[in-house]
Design goal:
Low-confidence stretches: none
Structural class: alpha+beta
Strand order of the largest sheet: 1-2-6-5-3-4
Radius of gyration: 16 Å
Strand content: 15-25%
Shape: globular
Mean pLDDT: 95
Length: 167
Amino acid sequence: MSDFAPAKIAEVLARHQVACVYIGGFAAYLYGSSLLTTDVDIVPATTKDNYARLSAALKELNARVRAEGVEPLPFSHDADSLAAAGVWNLTTDYGDLDVTAEPSGTQGYPDLHRASMRADLSGISIELASLADIIRSKEAAGRDKDRRALPVLRELLARQLRERRDR
């Protein structure tokens, strides 16, 4: 695997016109979080056409199933098989990619899309879940790594709200 290259993952997803919202640590990093992350988390729109575009993008990314303690496993996929699983933990030629239909504390793409914002990542326009939605998801997930990130994310949100108020 090459070094972590999230912009390359985003470029492939964008070129295949995959409708998705970026969430998790990488999205938080784009909001200014100082916490490092080594993966990209996306929430795709759950239409069959979108899953077909996602499947094509995953093939181009050379996506393999990631599981602890074993080498990444190749897998055959299409729109139906991707839709059948709620979560895919993958590794690609450009780093880890987690695909989740309904992250903890959310109702999936329509819920996250509602308050999302556009961001530029190396010239690629991507859709970021709102910082409040990232926090909501991490609170609901309740994992240790999420709990450790929450103070930083809450401070970023407070700063964001202060800046809006002061404009």
